[in-house]
Amino acid sequence: MSYSGTTIPGSGESVPFYDLSAMTDQVHDEVMLEWGNLLKSGQFVGGSAVTTFEEQWAEYCGSRFAVGVANGTDALHLVLRARGIGRGHEVIVPANTFVATVEAVVLAGATPRFADVDPDTLLMTPETMAEAATKKTRAVIVVHLYGQMPDMDAMCAAASQLGIELVEDAAQAQGAERGTARAGSFGVAGCFSFYPGKNLGAFGDAGAIVTSDETLNGQLLSLRDHGRGRGGHYDHEMVGTNSRLDAVQAVVLGAKLRRLDGWNTSRRELMSVYRQLLDDGPAELVGQVPGGVSAHHLAVVRVRERADVRAALAAARIGSGIHYPTPCHLMPPYAEFATGRLPVAEAQAAQILSLPLYPHMRPEDVERVCAVVNASAPPDPS
Length: 382
Ligand SMILES: *Cc1c(COP(=O)(O)O)cnc(C)c1O
Prior knowledge:
There is one protein chain. With about 375 residues, the protein is an alpha/beta fold. It folds into two domains: about 25-255, Type I PLP-dependent aspartate aminotransferase-like (Major domain) (Aspartate Aminotransferase, domain 2, 3-Layer(aba) Sandwich), CATH 3.40.640.10; about 260-375, Aspartate Aminotransferase, domain 1. The protein has helices spanning about 20-40, 50-60, 70-80, 100-105, 125-130, 150-160, 215-225, 245-280, 305-315, 345-350, 365-375, and strands spanning about 65-70, 90-95, 110-115, 135-145, 165-170, 175-180, 180, 190-195, 205-210, 285, 290-295, 300, 350-355. The strands form three sheets. It has a seven-stranded mixed sheet, with helices on both faces. The protein is globular, with a radius of gyration of 21 Å. The relative contact order is 0.17. A hairpin with a 2-residue loop joins β6 (about 175-180) and β7. It is about 40% helix and about 15% strand. The structure holds pyridoxal-5'-phosphate. Pyridoxal-5'-phosphate binds near residues 172 and 195.
């Protein structure tokens, strides 16, 4: 069953904002079988299920190594720690991201510097990166918001010109491509979350880091596992933490990885239906960066009369969301790091609206969503 809710004659089926159930059904038998083997093996922490997934994920992303961790926040935080970025250092982050990007910087002991974004794509640009940089800046975290990467050649060139490291927050971009390269493989490290709602999601929390830097890989393996060295179980070389990927989740991720490209293709096809049907209406889809293939994690539009549109969607029993309602520099715990207004990030927060999108959504569901959106407000004059 891919649809929750019951049919009320005349009103049409409800369209949930997101529905995992069909993806879960597709991997159910395979996961149960592999979990059976795992229970017999007793290898619950580490072991072949974890290393097998790590190898597959590194290969998929086009990186030499992948390190499984407990979640995406730890992925970001541990990369910063491994690179020696902490107290007295600044890390540039876009203001309009999920809070975890900024949280990871503060957890590492460093200071976030908020960058504004492009008004069309809502992504950081080489210019907004440079504007946020100071002498204390050591790194930038580029966020592939809603599933798409900015022009990464330009971003990498800008970071190297500033003499700072580029880390990718690819939590929303599993499988996104530019040229022949995938998200995560451009920066010194690519950080992924496998939270259940991401394009590749576990049955609980999980995450990973990809890198082609052998030293960094070694440091991350140690950091995620209590700072263990190669000398044995009680050989601790550094202050680490416990942030390991569970074997039960690695099995789920391996099974879902085999379907990820198909699911991303389905998202892309649904997005082209959205693009056709929303044209001329009051809602404008977030712009796409030329030369890339987005993972289409979310279908986000800008709309002036957002409250009216949301009310119309709710009345038609169609789910929607806002990602994210408050830019991070305006959130109470992070306001102390704000250095001024960020006009684009602040303006877009009042207009963005996320429409339903998941691989097993039907084109006719997209048609229903668009019909409600287009009828709910006058077309945008611009
Ligand atoms: C989900 C997400 C994270 C954090 O991942 P968790 O696994 O929930 O810790 C970080 N950054 C972005 C952009 C995300 O969407």
